Amino acid sequence: PAEVEAYRKKHEVTVMGEDVPAPFMSFEAAGFPPEVLKELLKAGFQAPSPIQAQSWPIVMQQKDVVAVAKTGSGKTLGYLVPSFIHLQNHKNNSRMGPTVLVLAPTRELATQIEDECVKFTKSSKISSTCLYGGAPKGPQIRDIERGADIVIATPGRLNDLLETKKVSLGQVSYLVLDEADRMLDMGFEPQIRKILKEIPPKRQTLMYTATWPKEVRKMAGDFLKNPVQVNIGNTDL
Ligand code: ADP
Ligand code: MG
């Protein structure tokens, strides 16, 4: 409809894929669980950012998604909010590993994602933890054993814990590659490939990136199934 076209034009939203749903132009339109909606409104946000508005309905259809939007455009909640809904439908009582796995390039970014996650899950039963190098493994292992639903990890530390069988990824059904371009720039591709071998193929895979160079395209081609792509602005970078 004209309203959808107007929104996409105004916010420079480009979509590629089959049967792409209309963007959620307001938080209320998304049909989120009340506790999630409450936190979004409490944060003082006016409306979903364009990458959220267009990627949320696609992710909620359980499709694989490539989302390309510049830094600061709200990509974190783009994948976190639908992960909360995914968790309601994918109960996993394993104390050896999470349902939702987010890979991020650095300790700093992983920590920021975890902070955002905690902020929006305060009033729910969802638990999360962050795994990164340069810190003792003991407390991280204890958090896994307590049954964290969401694990946010840097590839190096996660591989370490996989090799020593401190974590299992056999229950992961929602996988996010955040800052995919930076992870590849930092040389994490072999680590990411090793990690992905541990995750069952029956899963939803999302890739969020600020740029879309050929290395990232290649990885998307290798790991995502029939993805829908959403670009915001000029992402021919
Ligand atoms: P990116 O991952 O694209 O670089 P972030 O997810 O880190 O961006 O978000 C950047 C900032 O915008 C964060 O402080 C976040 O809380 C805020 N933010 C997220 N969604 C919205 C929104 N819908 N409206 C206003 N601010 C938002
Ligand atoms: Mg980000």
From TrEMBL:
A motif (Q motif) lies at residues 25-53. The keyword Hydrolase applies. Residues 25-53 form the DEAD-box RNA helicase Q domain. Keywords: ATP-binding, Helicase, Hydrolase, Nucleotide-binding. One of its GO terms (molecular function) is nucleic acid binding. Residues 56-230 form the Helicase ATP-binding domain. It comes from the Eukaryota. Belongs to the DEAD box helicase family. This is RNA helicase. It comes from Ceratodon purpureus. The chain holds residues 127 to 363 of 547 of the full protein.
